[in-house]
Write a structure and sequence with these properties.
7-stranded antiparallel sheet; mainly beta; single chain
């Protein structure tokens, strides 16, 4: 119990330190209004950040909202219990090292808290403490549709891994690009979201999650929700 409390405290301290740097806007980000001319609109917003993978049975969640002047407003990285049944949360360290799983998610919500687009990954890996013996990553996507066959659509998606067996680190990348044609833009030329998630699976049984999202046009109040568990 003492070791668990110490681990949670150390991770929480790391998360608090992380909040100052875990989301950035690209240096060349355009802060001009979208094609609509709305002063609340922002064009070509690029955000990125990273989160550590928490202990078994826990999840790390963080929100980044589009604030005034189109600058990102970083919320705290929150360490929370994992949703649903916690399987093998008390597994022995050796068993946890042999077989691990990590999930990541990257979601864009509008100002009414409607999820527009999302990219999700699930990675499984085994290691012997020296190398990642086997690994695999699956990626899925979700997007919001509107009546009359309108709304967001998946334009393209893909995934890749630099190494899946006998490697010190297995780096897995998933991406998804979405377009929009619907009530708020009948032309289909104004909105587009691109998500990219990178999960590094390590031989010592640890992992890390990195996220990127590119928004062709967005509005103040939209928010990016990301996390890993």
């Amino acid at each position: 119990m003492r070791n668990r409390i110490a681990l949670t405290a150390a991770l929480t301290t790391g998360l608090l330190a992380l909040t100052a740097v875990s989301a950035t806007a690209a240096p060349n980000e355009s802060r001009t209004a979208a094609a609509s001319g709305d002063a609340r609109a922002c064009a070509d917003v690029k955000l990125s950040g990273a989160l550590p993978v928490p202990p078994a049975g826990m999840a790390v969640r963080q929100n980044v909202s589009i604030g005034p002047d189109c600058a990102p407003v970083l919320g705290p990285a929150r360490l929370v219990p994992k949703a649903g049944p916690v399987a093998n949360a008390q597994a022995a360290p050796a068993a946890a090292l042999a077989d691990r799983q990590v999930r990541s998610w990257s979601e864009m919500y509008d100002c009414c808290n409607i999820r527009m687009t999302g990219l999700y990954t699930t990675s499984d890996w085994s290691s012997d403490g020296t190398v990642v013996t086997t690994s695999s990553t699956d990626a899925t996507q979700q997007w919001n549709r509107e009546p009359w066959n309108a709304g967001w659509s998946l334009k393209s998606s893909g995934k890749s891994a630099d190494c899946v067996a006998n490697c010190a680190v297995s780096t897995n990348v998933a991406d998804a690009s979405f377009t929009y044609k619907g009530i708020f833009d009948p032309t289909g030329n104004v909105y587009a979201n691109t998500h990219r998630s990178t999960v590094a699976l390590k031989a010592d049984g640890t992992a890390s999650c990195e996220f990127e999202v590119d928004l062709k046009n967005t509005f103040i109040g939209w928010n990016w929700q990301r996390g890993c568990e």
